[in-house]
Amino acid sequence: MKRVPVEVEPRYEIFVGPGALARAGDLLEGRRRVAVVSQAGIAARYATELRGAIGAPTELFLMDDGEEAKSLATVEWLGRELARWGLLRDDAIVALGGGVVGDTAGFVAAVYHRGIAVAQVPTTLLAMVDAAIGGKTAVNLPEGKNLVGAFHHPIGVLADPETLSSLPEREFRSGLGEVAKYALLTDVVEDPTGLTGVLRLHAAEVLARDPVVLGEVVARCAAIKAAVVARDPLEQTGERATLNLGHTLGHALETAGAYDLTHGEAVAIGLVFAGALAGACERVGVDVVDRYQAVPQALGLPTEVPDGEALDPAELVALMRRDKKAAGGLTFVLPGPNGIERVDDPPEHALRYAFASVGIGVG
Ligand SMILES: NC(=O)c1ccc[n+]([C@@H]2O[C@H](COP(=O)([O-])OP(=O)(O)OC[C@H]3O[C@@H](n4cnc5c(N)ncnc54)[C@H](O)[C@@H]3O)[C@@H](O)[C@H]2O)c1
What we know:
45% of the residues lie in helices and 17% in strands. It has two domains: 2-166, Rossmann fold; 245-363, Dehydroquinate synthase-like, alpha domain (Up-down Bundle). α5 runs parallel beside α6 and α9 (247-256) packs across α10 (263-280). The chain contains 13 helices and eleven strands. The protein is globular, with a radius of gyration of 20 Å. The chain has 363 residues and is α/β, with parallel strands linked by helices. The structure holds nicotinamide-adenine-dinucleotide. Residues 39, 41-42, 65, 67, 70, 97-101, 103, 123-124, 126-127, 130-131, 134, 136, 146, 163, 166-167, 171, 174 line the site of nicotinamide-adenine-dinucleotide.
């Protein structure tokens, strides 16, 4: 079992490895009762094991699937269910599921009785390496994603890579885009023990969802996110923005929505774009540009937009300007001589080159 500390106040740990769910006993020891929040398909597979590990009486609360369920209506429904069950201030909630369950149950934990303890038990690759770590919780409004939320750190995170065996392929690939991002964020190619090296040597095992290799990869990604979160727990210094590597174009492609790309596939193309843009701005050499292509490719992710010649770069630029993190300008997170940095308004010729390198707007 790997243990990754998250040095925030109060400190907590991420347990990664087969059997991680059994740690729920220690983590929730002494609680009077524990509410397990999940979704039907996930609970059918993993709730019995999890509830069996928890010493206190538990009750299962099943929310619906999908982004639409990440809503204030679900928050009200769950809050009322918890009140009827008699959940009190010193009890706890466990979120068993992907980012949708984690964000919703995490937000309910942040506001129920003005804040009660929550443990995150992520069951998607994306939630294991990203959503379950860092204390950001939120639900959506019809006006936009994640508009109502709070910072509320979990008391612990339990990630068992064996649960990923039942994850639909599309969801697994979505998490792989974030894995590629973490590898490039800490890209030290000379170090074969670094994440880039592990992915290069063991891409086949990752794709076959080998739980031992996945455990190694998840723990490394979690450690990278944990370190960034510890330095910028409330997203105030700008450091957390480096986690948006590959996401500026990625989000615009998702919003443009024409090609049914998963989040991770869109991020993968965004990473190739970011590498090419950094190269065209003469921030990095061709070796780095090549690596921004090779890492997503090794994970079987797309490096070009399918039928990208039909996309208008000007339309994507307009979408990127509207990105909530861009504040009106055109902002990217790019590699450079001083590491990963925010870069505003890159020159037109560099943008043209980067778009062409992912097959956008070129016939
Ligand atoms: N809080 C954060 O810091 C943060 C960071 C990134 C993303 N997010 C949020 O995470 C959400 C996306 O999360 P996601 O990608 O995990 O999607 P998700 O939670 O919707 O899960 C995807 C699907 O897989 C199913 N599933 C989950 N685990 C399974 C398993 N082990 N076996 C079989 N099926 C399983 C779910 O029921 C669901 O149908 C978004 O709402 C996003 O905003 C939050």
